[in-house]
Amino acid sequence: MKKIEEMTEEELDSYLANKAKERERYYREEATEEEIEKKAQRDAYLARETSYRRSGIFYEELPKNHLHNLSYKERLAKAEELNGCKFKEAKPCKDRFAPRDDFSGSSYPSQCDGRIVSVPRSPGLWSLRLHGLVLGPIIGICLLVVSMTDDSMPAWHSWLGLFLLTAFPLIMYKLGNAIRIVDAIEFNRHTGLVRTPYTLFRKPFYIPIEDLEYVVGPEVKNMRGSASMQTGYLSCRKYPEHYWFGNRIGIAGGGDTHDWSQMNRFMDITQPINRYYYKAMEYTFKKNKNAHGNGPFPEVMKKYFDADDCQINRWKVW
Question: Does 213 share its domain with 283?
Answer without folding.
Answer: yes
